[in-house]
Design goal:
heterodimer, A: 283 residues, mainly alpha, 11 helices, B: 353 residues, alpha/beta, 3 domains, 4-stranded antiparallel beta sheet, elongated
């Protein structure tokens, strides 16, 4: 237990000392928030500020998961930092858990901050189910960090990790409705969107905020399964040294984490609910 | 369960007492671990080897890195593994540290099988690896506290930083440390669980001579504390100065093993007598000195090198000849065969090829 606490404490201190962590967790999402808040005239419409807020939160979660967890884990392996841990009695579990907890602790103040900003500067009503929102956002963060860690586990070097992250990051950024409103998608893109994990994060946050709905159970189940599968896989496939290469076919394990969303997407399409998820964009 | 634990502790405490009572020189540790950590800890018996390796083999896809080696390391011994890059030194120690599975043979370290009981083993050994790193923004005391948390017992960062002369750097970030300070920190991390057995894999490679001497001093201190040290190196002087016994490895095999002196004595290599005279010897016909195998006059005419199997006899004869010739002597050196000579003789290669 003391190794878990020591790793979490150290990871938090290290994160606070790195400008890049502060930039991607705070400054970049805040820039997005203010720029798009101004572009979309977010003061005039509650829908608009919710849209901008969701965009900023999703960008933060994706960056935190893919870059904060995934790329950083590969960097630590490439720089022979994990190799030093390998000669100690610890297993990968405390390293992965510490990464997860640190990512959450660093990101949560931003969530609180951005809600306060939206409420005070853009007159957004304070969400009725704020606790549920925090729970759902936390779950999303854990799931995307798991996905980032699986990518780190199956990538043999930084180049491979970079390609795999971009392959996941950009579709999630543009096809989930986080940045480009899903109303403007043609039908086939909307179908694709149903299979993208970030879609369920974006829709879940908006539904809780706009409709005050109960937690979206199907999305939660998919996020939880993906998070658990991701953590188990990243533990099983964990490598301490850059010299330990993994076979190319192991990259297919990423699909195992995405599987719950593929099933959920198929289920949504089967139900014939591939209509615009939530009226998002205030005009 | 509680009763069982107490019983085990009690049995171990008694064994420790017996060990201490029978021991002529109780181990001097940084901290009296028996007071600070009353849990059972494997104190190696002086009679049983700390490391025992038989027919150890390791193959990678198409490369046999270790081809069946045998050796034992006793408690309190500094055991060197000497060889050029690619000889199999690092593979051997990494198998013993529990980092790599072996392909064949047997290995026992502190009574544990490094492949099947790696967690227990790692908890009890100290390791200083080649080419490792720490996060750039970690402070030295934080690194020691962090690594200390991984073990069932640990020394404090204050004890270790003072011991390794890093106390002034306790709040410095890892990225600001010099090469020598980083290496001292690496050794501090290896000592964080106060291990009886320490593996040092090429601890001075790439460091400048002054820092290498500092690290040598540290290893001598560890030796004086009766710790067992396994040291891999390709620096001859390191092995000669620090090791009680040396195994010379080449292409996955141990080609010779013994104390540095034994190895030098076994060598067929000749001693080298180097003399410098005040006046040139070019014009003089040099005699065939007894036991001298070869001689070479340098272009300056004043420096003469003579190779001999019986250097004392040859040197005496040279001195007598110089005296007869009325030649004044400026300098004389006698160099016995080094481990490098032994290595070249056994393998036909240089150590730093």
């Amino acid at each position: 237990m003391k190794s878990y606490l020591a790793l979490i404490t150290t990871d938090l201190k290290l994160a606070a000392r790195l400008r890049v962590v502060i930039f991607f967790n705070y400054l970049f999402p805040l820039m997005i928030f203010f720029i798009f808040g101004s572009v979309f005239g977010a003061r005039k419409s509650v829908d608009s500020i919710i849209y901008v807020l969701t965009m900023s939160i999703t960008l933060g979660i994706l960056g935190n998961g893919f870059f904060g967890a995934g790329i950083r884990a590969v960097q630590e392996r490439e720089m022979n930092i994990l190799r030093r841990y390998k000669v100690t009695p610890i297993s990968p579990a405390p390293l992965l858990v510490a990464s997860m907890v640190t990512g959450w602790v660093i990101f949560m103040p931003y969530i609180i901050l951005v809600f306060i900003l939206a409420h005070t500067l853009y007159h957004m009503p304070w969400p009725a189910h704020f606790g549920q929102l925090l729970f759902f956002i936390s779950l999303g963060l854990i799931t995307f960090r798991s996905l980032g860690l699986v990518i780190a586990s199956v990538a043999n070097n930084m180049q491979e990790a970079g390609i795999l992250v971009q392959l996941c990051y950009f579709p999630m950024l543009f096809l989930s409705g986080a940045t480009v409103p899903s109303e403007v998608f043609p039908h086939f893109v909307r179908v694709i969107s149903e299979f993208i994990p970030a879609t369920y994060l974006v829709n879940g946050v908006r539904e809780i905020m706009m409709k005050g709905q109960q937690l979206p159970v199907e999305s939660i189940v998919a996020l939880v399964i993906a998070a658990i599968v991701g953590l188990i896989l990243s533990m099983k496939l964990f490598r301490w040294e850059k010299e330990e290469k993994i076979r190319t076919s192991a990259k297919l394990w990423i699909l195992a984490v995405l599987l719950p969303f593929l099933v959920l997407g198929a289920w949504e399409i089967h139900k014939g609910q591939d209509k615009p998820p939530v009226s998002t964009f205030g005009r | 369960m509680r009763l069982e634990t107490n019983l085990i502790v009690s049995v171990w405490s008694n064994t420790e007492k017996e060990l201490r009572a029978n021991s002529q020189e109780p181990p001097t540790l940084l901290l009296d671990i028996n007071k600070a950590f009353p849990l059972p800890y494997t104190l190696p018996m002086s009679t049983s080897p700390v490391i025992s390796v038989q027919a150890l083999r390791k193959s990678y896809a198409d490369l046999e890195a270790v081809k069946g080696i045998d050796f034992e390391v006793s408690a309190g011994e500094v055991f060197g593994i000497l060889g050029p890059n690619g000889a199999g030194k690092t593979t051997t120690v990494e198998i013993l540290e529990g980092l790599r599975p072996r392909t064949g043979g047997n290995a026992m370290v502190l009574g544990f099988d490094p492949e099947r009981q790696k967690q227990q083993l790692k908890d009890r050994i100290g390791v200083c690896l080649q080419a490792t790193n720490l996060p750039a923004k970690i402070r030295t005391h934080e690194a020691i506290d962090l690594f200390g948390s991984f073990y069932s017992r640990s020394l404090t960062s204050e004890q270790l930083l003072k011991r390794l002369q890093l106390w002034d750097k306790r709040d410095s970030f890892y990225e600001t440390l010099s090469g020598g300070q980083k290496q001292r920190l690496a050794i501090a991390l290896g000592l964080v669980n106060d291990p009886q057995l320490l593996f040092l894999d090429e601890p001075t490679t790439g460091l400048d001579p002054q820092i290498r001497l500092e690290i040598h001093g540290l290893i001598e201190e560890l030796k004086s504390e009766k710790r067992t040290v396994v040291l891999t190196t390709h620096y001859i002087e390191e092995a000669e100065r620090l090791c009680d016994r040396v195994a010379i490895m080449d292409e996955g095999r141990i080609v010779a093993m013994g104390s540095p002196r034994e190895l030098q004595q076994k060598s067929r290599g000749q001693s080298r007598i180097q003399i410098v005279c005040e006046q040139p010897l070019n014009a003089i016909q040099l005699p065939q000195w007894p036991e001298a195998m070869d001689s070479k006059l340098e272009p300056d005419g004043r420096s003469l090198t003579v190779y001999s199997n019986r250097p004392a006899r040859t040197l005496f004869e040279i001195m007598r000849w110089l005296d007869q010739q009325g030649i004044q002597l400026e300098d004389v050196h006698l160099k016995r065969p080094t481990l490098e000579d032994v290595f070249v003789e056994l393998t036909g290669k240089k150590l730093r090829d």
